[in-house]
From TrEMBL:
The keyword Signal is assigned to this record: yes
Organism from which the protein derives: Streptomyces orinoci (Streptoverticillium orinoci)
Domain of life where this protein originates: Bacteria
InterPro entries according to UniProt: Peptidase_S1_PA, Peptidase_S1_PA_chymotrypsin, TRYPSIN_HIS
Leader sequence residues: 1-39
Name of this protein: V8-like Glu-specific endopeptidase
UniProtKB keywords: Signal
UniProt keyword Signal, yes or no: yes
Amino acid sequence: MTADAIPFPHSGARRISAAVVAVLALVAALLTTAAPAHADNSVVEMPALVPGGPDYQQKLKDEVGFWNLSKMAKAALNNEDHDAVAPSGGWDAYSKPWPVRQGLIGRTAGKLLMEYKNLDTGATELSACSGDVVTSANKSVVITAGHCVGYHLPVVGPNLFVDNMVFIPGFNGAGLARHTDSTALPGKDVAPYGVWGVTREWTTDTWAHNGDWAAGGDMAALLVANPDDPRPIAEVTGGQKIAFNQPRAQHSVLFGYPTSNERNYYSHAQNKVAAPLQRDYDGRTLMYAEGDAWSDPVYYNDVITGAMAPGSSGGPWLQNFDPATGEGVQTGAFSRYDDPGQIIGIQGWLIGPNLQATQFGDEEQAVYFAAQSVNRQPVNRA
């Protein structure tokens, strides 16, 4: 895979402060006086993670087999070396755990594990996001955020793209040891519905060419397959309904796997909220936040006040959610944070008491259609 095959522009090696990064992103956003135009509804497909061919099955097996328990723990759990801490005031609408395997959402929501490659340095790093299985013609589509497959920051970098990615629906990290050198693959206790390799990825044209949160379009669709199960994923987990161009500012529920507390506005270390509201995450548990959304006038996203942390990126944003059945309609994917008190500050987009989701419109619909229209298993033309 060569750098010039990647749709994200290659940034230089120069490095400047995070403050400047934030200002650049903010200036770009403020210069946009209307929602970004997507007249051609163009879609960008990333280079295939598991290309078709006579060795497709072996490559898929290798992709999934990369994620032994040791690598999984490094990517799936937080970097602060401590377990989750519930708020002393009790879990609330800002975030609370969803019961393991309960309802449809307990099967369709899952954790994404990624190995990123830095196009500037060649270095690799492990990370995690969240995603959701949606109904689709090929029964094989998972929706997440565009920045979970790759992103760049103009001028300052980094310029990252995924070169290995798996999806674990219903991920349960309760028994995943933090410090382990085990090369064993996860069992049903951690991956109750299996580990699914991401074979192909599509994202919006806007995100592919402006992967910096300033222009929006932060959404991606993934095609997944399991080397140990011939069925499509939606036949195993079911799929959430998905809809586009839905009414904005509705009561919304966000699901994801918050992992890192370094940018968790509600963490004990940040100490930004009253003590009874402070909480920490470890990445082991599916959490959710809910509230009445409002529309952000700068980034064209819907927003709720909530305490979800990094690791929740790409998690499903649902309307008309029924907690009794775990069913809803996915109308967005978690993208970034928002702090209206720092609208011209330096950290509002990195950390804030509010959660922003990319709301699915025409461009996101085109991405979904591209993913659902392909064969879930490549045709072997060798």
